Every structure is written in structure tokens, then in C-alpha cells.
Amino acid sequence: MPSSVPADRLATAAVSAGLSDRVITWLFVAPTIVLLLAINIFPLFWTIYLSFTNFRANQPGRAVQWVGLDNYRSLFDSDAVWSYLQNTAHFVVWSITLQVLIGFGLALLLHRQFRGHATLTTLILLPMMLSPALVGLFWRYLFDPQAGIFNYVVNYFGGFGTFSMLSSTQLAPWAIILVDTWMWAPYVMLLCLAGLRSVPPYLYEAAEVDRASRLQQFWHITLPMVMPLLMVAVLFRAIECFKVFDMVIELTSGGPGETTELASLSLKRAAFEKWRTGYASAFAILLFVVVFGASNLYVKYLNRVKSR
Amino acid sequence: MDRAAAEVATVPAGHSTARNPTESSPAVKWLAGIVVAIYAVITLIPVAWIAMTSFKDVTEAVAYPPVVFFEPTLEGYVNLFTTRTRATPEYMESLPPPATWYDRIVRSRNMVIAGPSPFAGRFLNSVIIGFGSTFLAVFLGTLAAYAFSRFRVPLKDDLMFFILSTRMMPPIAVAIPIFLMYRQLGLADTHLGLILLYTAINVSFAVWLLKGFIDEIPREYEEAAMIDGYTRLQAFVKVVLPQAATGIAATAIFCLITAWNEYAFALLLTTRTAQTAPPFIPNVIGEGGLDWAAVSAGTMLFLLPVMIFTLLLRKHLLRGITFGAVRK
After folding, report:
1. What is the ipTM score, two decimals?
2. B227: containing domain
3. I need a labelling partner for A263 at 20 to 30 A (CA). Which of A237, A254, B170, B272 fits?
4. What pLDDT digit, counting tens, does each position of A238-248 carry?
5. Model's pTM, two decimal places?
6. Which residues of chain B have a CB within 8 Å of the CB of A179?
């Protein structure tokens, strides 16, 4: 125990009165671990078990059969699942790209420290704190081709005639990307801003002495220094985008057709509308493996960038 | 004393004193400020529009083209909190004059108030479940964070990573067994069920964030107290907790917002008794579809507390959204 007080004196003080540190440790840590085991780990193993059965939660009386890898086989054979994953990939990639561009751009501007920048930062951050389900709900109203203001504003500037963001198969995938970006670009902005603030000014001074151009300074100083935090932002956003459910189900509910049916939405339908519990469990495990595997790989790469 | 806040607050100030050769010229600053201000205005229009819509009457809310100038009414809020039935003109004639302002609003549409809507109850559920789970998560989180911060916990790094990894799990991956488990244990559609679930969702976050805050409190404070005859527990309660108060408050607000906004589990696990507001608000039906004025009113009432909390939290936002990984 690194401390300014001799350890033996501390030890006698602790033993002479009250519980020992070891007992306190267990008393303090155990409840959290027990809760997480009960509500996270135990259910996870249960999901794994269910994924090998034909159990249906709406027919609890029915005999449960072990079906081996059948659920996984039908997952991989299904064209629908493949298209849901493609929808998800489209959503994740474009949302993150836009959020990085807008977030980094805003951070560069805010870093100029003009008057009122702190207030504006707080205002811009507001959307990401709101309930995603209600955000999806009110954007459904804003996108309404009649009563909504989105079309009205767009047509005021552009004049695209009548169109409907949510009932066009071409536009709907972009509607969910737009709303996610509206909500989460500030998140990337906040992390980039932290990255920019961490750059020590002497680096720029040295670059100035060496007559590096602004572009070179950006490329060789700003970008590498911001990169680790930007990558953390991308990691967190990618995990969240992959899991997104609330906002999309309220905004498009997967439609029109199945153009915005993301993996998480179809998983919920399989589990709680079609009641194919075993199959849905296999789907859940597949998604879990993808998220967990991808984020672990990414963290490895991130650590390499950080240590550079 | 508010050490954590002081430390965070000093960062921008300390930075701006450093003479930076790339320090922008006034013109560039002005330009940057204008661009950011434009973005802020655009990004806040949707929220402002919903706020406006909540004060429109039912027909103005769906008028084309969208109405910008209108006479504000509380019809949306009245419709949110009541259920109404349409009455015949003869029946309307036979009624005594309206007793209250909300009666008057409803009767102007040839309707009478049939009773309260479930909204107030759903909102109360959100409050009970939000505060209950926040209290539990912060309580458990503070204990665990203190132990992780101060003691040699066996497999400390593994346990900390385990705690974090539960948060990375897609909730839907565990939703099926939790649904089955709750049905078996009678926890489905109960306040306790959602409180336990939201506690589990938040506790990993609380441990990580609070460990960061407690790490910043010098050990010497408690050690000095223990030399003076305090037990370890007394030192924890009387020395560490007051020092960590700001951090605990910030953590609590984050947990509250997460629980408050949660939707997926509330949708799956509750139907009536314990249903929270987010799954309820999208179902405020008027005559012929969603009553957008009432939906906007519900949305505003629900979002307002979060907006206020966000303003309170602004110094700790960065820390909160990165699980305490980034402190400045």
C-alpha cells in the first residue's frame, strides 16, 4: 500500500476497531458482481442454451427438443437475415462517417475559443441526451410530407416537389441515418474537442519554427493527437449503432417494406412477435459475437495507435 | 470542497493562457462562431418545433403548410392527461356551463371529459423506476468503486473488464431469458423488476465513473482519519463520501437519464402497472390517428427534465459518455 503513513500503524488501527479491509472488500464488491451475474451472465448462458433448442416462449408447455446447430444453419441460409445485416452495415457505416465529419468539423471550429463557445457546445450536445424512442417518434412527425416541417424547409430552399422521407424505399434508409447523425454528431464532437485540447501548444510552436504549413501542422500534429480519442468515439458509436433499436422502431418500424429493417429490429420480431425463441437466441448470439469480436479487434488496433 | 469540478473547470482557462502560435485572428474566430451558431440553430429547430406543436390545437398540429404563428392553447396537454368522449349537441346543451378551463377547451370540440388518461400514472412510474434504480446503482457502484480504488482486489483488472463488458452486450441478447425469468419469478410488469434491471444496466457505468472520481481523492485523507481513531468504514463514510459528493451526483444524473430514456426493456417487460412513459407516449391516439399535439405535449414533459439535467451536468459530460476514460 503506497502511502505516507507506515503500513503497520495503519494495520493495527484497522484491526483494533471495525471490519478488516479484506472483509470490507468483499462486502463492497460482492453485491455488484452478484447482480451482474444474475441479470447479465446467467441470461447470456441461457440464451446460448436456447439457441440449440426449438423452444417457443409462447408455448411453455411444449416439449423442448435439442436441435443442435439447426437454428444457426437456418440463420446462415436465410437471405432475409443477410439483407438485414446489409441494412445494418449501411446504417452503421454512413452514420459514423457523417458523425465523424460533422463532429470533427464542429470540434475544429469550437476549438477557436470564440466568445460564447461554451454555451454553444452545451446547446449542441442536447440531442444526444434525449430519449431515442421519443426522438424517433417526433422525427416521424417532422418527416411527415404534409404536416412536417422537414419537407417544407427542404422545398423552400431546394424545390424537390412532393416526396416522403419515410415511405420512399430510397430515402428511408437515409432518414434513419440523418436522425442518428443529428443525435450523435455532438458525441464525436465532444471527444474530438477533448483531443484537440490535449495537444500541447509547444508542438505548434516547434512546427512554426520549422516553417511547417498549416496543412502540414494539421496532418502531422493535430490529426495524430486527436486520433486515439476519435477512434474511441468511433468504437462507442459503432457498438451503439449496431444495437440501435428504439429510435428506428419508432421512426420507420423497419419500413417501407423491409428497407430499414435492421438486425436488432428483426431479432425483436423473431423473439417477441413470431415467438421463434430458439432461432432468435441463435440470432442474438450471432450479433453478440460480431459486436464483441469486432470491438476486441478494434481495441487491439486502437492500442497500437495509442502507443505510437 | 468541490475538487473534481474545480479541476475540470480549470482546464480551458489554464489552456487559454498558454500562448498558442496558431491562435486564431478575430476574423477567423467570428467566422467559426457564426458557422457553429448556425449549426446550433438548425440542430435545435426540431426540439423547438415539438415545443411549439405542444401548444398548438389539434388541427393546427397537422395543418399544411405547417403553422408558425398561432394562438397558444393547452389543448395538447389537456388531451394528454384526459380521455374524452364525443357528445351529441343536445347533450352538450343540457350540461351546466363548464366549471374549469380544461372543461372549456374540451367542450369547444363538442366533447366531454370521460376521465383521466393513464399518462400521469406512466410518468409517475418513470419517476419511481428512474429514481429507485439510480439510487441502487449509485449505492452499489460507490461501494464497489471504493473497494476497487483502495484495496487489493483479487483479479482486479479482470473484474473491472468483466463489469464493463456487460455494458457492451446488446440488450436484446439477454432480453429473451430475462423475459422468461421475469415471467417465472412474477417480476414481469412490476416496478421492482424494472428497477433491478435498470440497476444492472447502470451499475457497470457507475463503478467505472466513480472509481475515477474516488481515485482522485488522496488516500492520505482517510489514512489521517484512521490514525485519529476512525475505523475504515467511518473514514469511508465521513471522509471519502463528502469528498466524492460531486462525482456521485454527476454519476447519479447519468444513471437517471439512462433509466429515464430506456425503452426496449420497458416495451418487452411491462404492459400496464409498471409501464414507463417512453413506450406509452407513442400511443396517445386522438380521433383518426396519433394526436400530435398531445404526443408533443407528452414528449416535452418527458424531455424537459433531461434538458435541465444536461445543463447541470455540462462539466462532466465528457467524462460520463466515455465511462470515465477521458477526464478533461
Report:
1. 0.85
2. 120-281+316-321
3. B272
4. 988 988 999 99
5. 0.86
6. none
